[in-house]
Amino acid sequence: MSNKILEVKNLSKHFGKTKVLMDINFSMEEGQVVSVIGSSGSGKTTLLRCINMLEVANGGKIYLDGNLFIDADSGMKYTQKELREKQLSLGLVFQDFNLFPQYSVLENVTLAPRLLAKERPDYKERKKEILHEIEENAKEILASVGLSEKLNNYPCQLSGGQKQRVSIARALALKPRVLFFDEPTSALDPELTGEILKVIRQLAAEHITMIIVTHEIDFAYSVSDKVIFMDKGVIAEEGTPDEVLKNPKNPRTQAFLQKLS
Amino acid sequence: MSITLNDLILVGTKLAEGFNVTLQIFALTLLFALPLGLIISFGSMSKIAIIKYPIKLFIWIIRGTPLMLQLLVVYYGPSILFGVKGLSNFPAVIITFVINYACYFSEIYRGGIESVPKGQYEAGQVLGLKKSQTFFRIVLLQVVKHIVPPMSNEIITLVKDTSLARTIMLYEVIWAGQKFITSRGWLWPLFATAVFYLLFCGILTLLFGYIEKKLDYFN
Fold it and tell me: How many domains does chain B have?
């Protein structure tokens, strides 16, 4: 077994009679960055949502670190507790941030770790220490995305780019095995996309394993180890950025890239 | 006609006694109807049809008939329909008001809960929060913010609806004022009851304004 961190096998998903994902297969290694490109409705977002268990896949298996992570073939349902544990090993950054408006920047990042810490057996004795650690860790992450000045601001006081950076920090605070981005710049003004891409580049340099659904082809080219082109619910082409983006073999990939340039 | 100080004190005392009952109806209704409304709203949003539709039907009946009629049914209904001794007037008023207002509140809660974007729940979910944590830590305060204006409207309506208790002879402030017509031939105490309502609603308006302002820091 290689050091595959994530492996998706024969994943399928349909909404009613509409097949959204058909027999999706791919894998990635630890520290890799995979970009998923394709036109709207190609199934990119649904793929992310299935892996993150926001949608229930109808068939296929997903392995994380070599262990069976989601078994959609068996049709079994996970308990809330199992679902939570699984979701904690993955992180997801949404297109429209979904920050919690009533919490400050720092609180947005610390909320989940604080609630999670309550389940630790040593929480009662070490409460102060633990909460202090969580806060320091959050501050560190927020500093790394350039938001040290904004710790006590509320989301409504931030620009779109700043909101998205908080949302990245919030996901990072739980130290996910794989971090997913669902079109992280699509809700932003063009002049703000740069700051988000910079942060993702920085994470790539730190060897954070990431899957990024994006429309930013140049960015995908420069940051990815692997590019997946999806079309009508299937992976039409995958390979290195050079293979897929510079010398696409599939006519559908060619047509898609043509349209964008 | 001149009103002496003694008249004022007499009327004031009687009206205050009546208003005390008004306040009791108001407070008890809120105490029970606010949580009951939340439960009803969960029922009306349930995915289970045999819970959802009977509750929707019930809300329709309660909101579709006059509160005054409901009071009469609860008070006289048991003895007329079943020949049993019914409730005395105070519990009958409280039960009727609680059910009636819980139904209105439930629709306000439903509006508030449905106004919170799905993404908030999903964000809670991918961050590994329990469903209850997502509701109480993330959704609830956003719901509260959304429902303060319609709630304050409804609660101010409740203050004045308490006067309907008089229909089943509960001695609240309007009844107290009205009694002076027969006992003394005075009409003015009835109008003086308005002062109590105005003052109380004024206080509530200030209170809700304060809460709205407190929640102004986010949107």
Answer: 1
Please give the residue of chain B at the shortest CA–CA distance from A109: B127
**What value of ipTM does the predicted structure carry?**
0.92
In a domain, A14, yes or no: no
Q: Which of A6, A10, A26 is nearest to A67 (CA)?
A: A6
CATH number reported for the structural domain that contains residue B169 in this entry: 1.10.3720.10
Lookup: tokens for B140: 């609830």
Scan residues 143-162 of A and list those with Cβ closer than 8 Å to B.
154-156
CA atoms of A25 and A57, how far apart (whole Å): 13
Q: Determine what percent of chain B falls in helix, strand and coil, rounding each to the nearest 5.
A: 85, 0, 15
Q: How many CB atoms lie within 10 A of CB B185?
A: 7
Residue A234 is assigned to a structural domain of this protein: no
Task: Give the sheet arrangement for strand A59-64, strand by strand.
Answer: A18-29, A4-15, A59-64, A67-71
Q: What is the pLDDT of residues A161-220, one digit of tens each?
A: 999 999 999 999 999 999 999 999 988 888 888 899 999 999 999 999 999 999 989 999
